[in-house]
């Protein structure tokens, strides 16, 4: 079986495109299934919310009924002595359903006992007098059949007997209450509680299923992003070497051979654009602005000699030999002395040992990748930590660029790297070659350039002045809201300032504002870092404009 790396670039791109298509199709199916399940869970959650509301209303109603029943409960008393017999209060008549005025006796209570309870109650009555402890209230529950309606009612008895003592004969005292409504309410409340418990269990199960589904989607997205990253590196790395090599040959070959190379170079660029489009569409939701670095007219850019010392020392960190060779040749043509290493760890060690004017750092490398190496370099002591670093990545996505800039890189390039974009990146590195740790005027230069170059030439100066004016205004609103401790005004002003800042790539302002607002609730946040960053960015806008935009076509 032919190895993928041995295939021609066009066939390799077709194979990788097919793989990407299958991966995307599988992911879309998974996302569709997840979306359906999420809708089902959302609907179930809504139904549960409605049931919980109904439960609360029913509990409130039942509680009111219970209180009402307790307030109107029917109760009677019984008193008895051995010699005098038993007497029953008049209220017992309403419990038994006797006609008005009819005398109530203990015998009538017994005669009204429900047949299912009569024998049991007679046994308990005998036991009460023979064995149960005196001076203690004993409770009994039984049913009666009302004489007027034939309705079965539940009665609750509390009976206490006292033994005879000197000067007082023994006696029995009892109270009886109709608890039919109480029992009914208790059963209804318990039924409601059981239904609520089942609903809560269902909700817990749904939440678990939702969490599992979310974990599966996150895993699928992580696998997908990893696949896209690997494919981007696998496609663009050889394309970068091919494009660079053809560019180098074109400069040294003339005549018919030069024309043939020009055709090959155009085909290579087309292949690179196709591969870039496939990769960017595969990562569409991650790509806020998925565009390759546009070509910049070099005729009116500042000369490199005005920005760099004679024979600047450049370190190239690239693990692919062909790409490393192309970078060395391009930098040599630009008048640089080049040192090369094959991984990020070697780059950190090289910067620690000797000084360089700037670094060209591949992002995906073994042992230590470009992002990790950049962070390690920024942590060094002395001037080495301030070395400008130009990142080279297989991705052209804005999210990737922002992450690398946040790690400490000065500028970013997407493979394949052209001479024109390399020159622009070097200009950027020289402009921003101050102390990276203290330079609060942090910009995404690609966003900055695109914000102006997408406009007609006549509007660019107006855009520059408007950006400075808006940043000044909204930053002042933020500071005023901080002084007055007005959270609502701070939120409004922050939203406006973030929008304006991102329009021109002023990510330093956005990051400082976010840092302040995250730490504000703790009470130990300082607004001074934000204030200094705004001032630095306002001062840097004109410098960046004339270096990266002015005169560009």
Any overview of this molecule?
The protein is of the alpha/beta class and 553 residues long. It has 4 domains: 4-49 and 211-286, no CATH class; 75-178, 2-Layer Sandwich (Beta-Lactamase), CATH 3.30.450; 304-439, Rossmann fold; 450-548. 60% of the residues lie in helices and 11% in strands. The protein is built from 16 helices and 10 strands. It has helices at residues 9-71, 92-96, 106-111, 115-130, 180-252, 255-282, 321-333, 344-353, 370-378, 398-407, 419-431, 445-453, 457-484, 487-503, 507-519, 528-548; strands at residues 75-81, 85-88, 138-145, 152-162, 171-178, 313-317, 337-341, 358-362, 389-393, 411-414. The strands form 2 sheets. It has a 5-stranded antiparallel beta sheet with strand order 2-1-5-4-3, sandwiched between helices. A 5-stranded parallel beta sheet has the order 7-6-8-9-10, sandwiched between helices. The radius of gyration is 43 Å and the shape is elongated. It starts with 8 loop residues before the first helix and ends in a 5-residue tail after the last helix. 27% of the residues are buried.
Task: Please give the CATH architecture of the largest domain.
Answer: 3-Layer(aba) Sandwich
Q: Point out poorly predicted stretches.
A: 66-72, 285-307, 434-439
CATH topology-level fold name of the largest domain: Rossmann fold
Rounded mean pLDDT score: 77
What percent of residues adopt helix (DSSP H or I)?
A: 55-70%
Q: Helical region count?
A: 16
Number of domains: 4
What is the multimeric organization of the chains shown? single chain
How big is the Rg? 43 Å
Structural class, from helix and strand content?
alpha/beta
Please give the largest β-sheet: 5 strands, antiparallel
Strands, total number: 10
Distance between the termini: 49 Å
Main sheet strand line-up: 2-1-5-4-3
Shape designation: elongated
